Amino acid sequence: MLKNMRKNGFILGAFAISATALIVATQFLTADRIATQERNELLRTLNELVPPEQHDNDLFSDCTMVHATDALGLREQPVYRSRMNNEPHALVLRTTAPDGYSGAIHLLVAVDMQAQIKGVRVLQHRETPGLGDKIEIQRDNWILSFNGERVRSENDARWRVRRDGGMFDQFTGATITPRAVVAAVQRTAWYAQNNMDTLFAAPSNCSGEPLVSEEQPYEY
Amino acid sequence: MSTEYQNLAKDGLWENNPALVQLLGLCPLLAVTGTVTNALGLGIATMLVLVGSNITVSLVRSWVPNEIRIPVFVIVIATFVTLVELTMNAFTYGLFMALGIFIPLIVTNCAIIGRAEAYASKNNWYHSAFDGLMMGVGFTLVLVALGALREILGQGTLFAGAELLLGEWARDLKIQLFSFDYPLLLAILPPGAFLGMGFLIAGKNWIDGRRKAKLAKAPIEKAQRARVTTVN
To answer: Please, which residues have CB within 8 angstroms of residue A52's CB and are 6 or more apart in sequence?
Structure first.
């Protein structure tokens, strides 16, 4: 009996050890490639907002973490800084709209030195497929309507969806999603234009922060 | 010899199809079949895990005592899922992001441990590999059929986002069958998956029923010429 238990324990242990060894080996072989993939994905989105010819610094590493709960959401968010000949050129901020139709919407907002929006992209969301997901650039051009706009005051009334008397279209069947995105972009842009100098002066300390948050949709 | 392969193929693809007959692995099946690309990606991942775990379970079956076989199967399956997950993360990053949590969830797909227990632990490795392959293909075909159904009804497209799975050249594979202002939301959301799955199962049963009726009809007519009654 005892001998049998010992034998089974030994076999089970041997399986666990060899399985772990196999996974460690694979992890070791793929780690570099995975890091490159994540970095490329981030750079691709960043370069969509700030084209490579407009800056000469490494956007990926010229990045500072900021904690601005009112403007950017609860978590610490990275702010990427684009410079040309060491002159500040634009900020790319990650921000969160907490009030989407089904949870938080994670965004990337680029603001230039004249406080103009250079572009906005959605990083991650769980909005209704076919309705709210028109905020994705792959599905609709709506997100481009922010380009070139400017926030004039903290409560700029133009920064609403049309139904609320503002200048941004809502979607037929989905008002909550664009409303949340418009409000988040407004807060972020206002924060950026009022903290330009501080944000550009802050030290780089991002250390490969993942672009997309680790939370996964567990809804099914 | 060849009949064993034929039986395995028939079982996996039709008679004992993991999705349509055994109704196993429904969680990923219903969740990721919004598009053909996602369905195909998860189907292939599941198939790789099935083949790998079936081969391994079959190879070690003589060393594993009966009492600890289930934990050993779980270790083997979890290992293969992790390997597939890491590989997809490294080589098909876009698809990895799209499938998200459903790749690790392959571990919980009962079809896999079911095949390990029911077939691989009792048969040699090459038959087990073929069994895994056929069960995987059967599962993938159902996923893709459901994905196509939902993608056509919901978005009016086919193969949208194929470049995530196959690389940049596949961007042109996308077919816009028709477009509409209001997508058929029911098809895209989870209820559409349940309804579509119901129709697929009903379709399979209908075909089986017709085949059975045909087979049953012929001999009865020959035997009882005098008085033909309807079957059932």
So the answer is: none
